[in-house]
Amino acid sequence: MEAESEPYVRLATMRQLHQAVADLNTARSLADTLQTVADGTVSGLGYGLGCVNLVRPDGDLVVAAFAGNSAAEALITGRVGSRESWERRLSMGEAWDGLRFIPHTEGWVLLEDDVPQWHTEGPEPRFEDEWHPLDRLYAPMYASGGGQDLLGVISVDRPRNMRRPGAWGREALQMYASQAAIAISNARLRANMQRALVRLEREQQALRASEESFRQAFEYAPSGMAIAEMGGDQHGRLLRTNDALCRLLGRPASALRRYSFADLVHPEDIGTLLRTSAEGGRAELRLGRRDGTYLWVSLRNSVVADTADGPRFLLTHVEDIEERKRHELQLAHRASHDALTGLPNSAELRARLGARLCERPHSVATTAIEALDAAYGDADASRVHGYQADGYDADPVPGGPYDHHVHTTAPDSERDDGAKGLAVLFCDLDGFKSINDRFGHHTGDAVLIEVARRLSTCVRDGDTVARLGGDEFVVLADGLGAADAADLAVRLRNAIIPPIRVDGRAVRVGASFGIGWAECGMTAEEVLRSADQRMYVEKRSRSKVHRRAG
């Protein structure tokens, strides 16, 4: 029948399509545009029901507009169908060019999926092209009028003539879907532009308020703040400082404008300052005060600009951390030093000893030539001198595990060949327990403090005197030969033996020393155990009268 009146159908369809598209351009908002799209399928294209399903940011489709039945509109508007279910629908049935038609003979499998849908009542079709109540026709809308970026789907139902649309009806629906996609995209663009304009105005208002707030915050901040130049010959020069920074450094603002932080930083901290990035950089360093002293501060940098394209400046927040640094140093000292004597404690002793040791097997001798080869990365020369000949590949080239490490070796105990090493003198006080038991812990503590002082005065700068615990002390002395270590042990014992006066009472303690040697291939525990064992050998070898104290 459509073929017999094709010119009339074509003209009427074009008029209806033109009017429907014209109505799309009159909508003022995105919501109006979506509703106009749905209304156009009913008033312009001749369907009894029309629905616009819009893709959400998460990919699912929501019923955004409905036309033709108020009861159905109230039932499904705002409901969501999953993207997976929609993709299944758009791949079923018959492809009518850009449309998708699912006849009732196939669509019954969709009755239980999660896509919002309505059901219309009607008689069973009597003709092949008659519309069935369960027939479905979808017109996908793609962004920019084409491609695979799905914008939404127009669903239509119940053509007024109750016939499946012919060629012109299908083309009209497809053209309408294309124009609807453009109208929806334009509406979204206008909505985004309106939101952007509103946001821009708010941002400008906020910027003006922020500038005033920044000025007040900068001037009246309780901690120091400074603005410095970025780039150019004057990079880092202070342009503006607040009162708090002037008070912190004891310098007036006019004087600070002649400096940069590089001029004020402690010489030892200049590297820290140079490594601090401009954007988000943080550093803890010392700045010089007018009186010549230095103050620990925390610097935090950020980059600010006068305008979007204007010059950039460095905003630096300066916080006084002198008290915290002093407290941290005290805590670090407490963690690594004995609370009673002030000497390095057991953990610090093991750390210092372990820093001198490596895992290199002690059977591999280190010669002066090997040390030079390791320092300068001469891998071939090092192998000539026996690393691989003994079955060990120490790989002393730069970047290897022993790069720049000076191996610690022990002097030969059988002969004095002039070799030097790291001596470990293990000291155990003789008679200390009887003093503790007889006179109490107060006297015992005073004895330990005096012994620690005497030991410390007998060693060189750079040597370590540590309290291992109880009445045990350890001395680390580098660069000693076997005879040197024995002489040092005698001097230390002689320094301990003289009477110690506590509360008007003179008490005496003796000392037994065991001399061990640190050597690469050993652990710190093994070194200390070796010295401890030699101390007990020495203690047993001396007569009790010589060890007696009181």
Automatic annotation (TrEMBL):
Q: Domain PAS, which positions?
A: 210-269
User: Which InterPro entries does this entry report, sorted A to Z?
Assistant: Biofilm_reg_signaling, GAF, GAF-like_dom_sf, GGDEF_dom, Nucleotide_cyclase, PAS, PAS-assoc_C, PAS-like_dom_sf
Q: What top-level branch of life does the organism fall under? A: Bacteria
Q: Which CDD domains match?
A: GGDEF, PAS
> By its UniProt entry, which NCBIfam families does this protein fall under?
GGDEF, sensory_box
The beginning of the lineage is: Bacteria, Bacillati, Actinomycetota, Actinomycetes, Kitasatosporales
Q: Indicate yes or no for the key word Coiled coil.
A: yes
Mind listing the UniProt keywords for this protein, alphabetically? Coiled coil
Show where the GGDEF domain sits: 420-550
Q: Which residues form a coiled coil?
A: 186-213
Sequence ranges assigned to domain PAC in this UniProt record: 281-333
Output this protein's name: Diguanylate cyclase
- Which organism encodes this protein? Streptomyces fulvorobeus
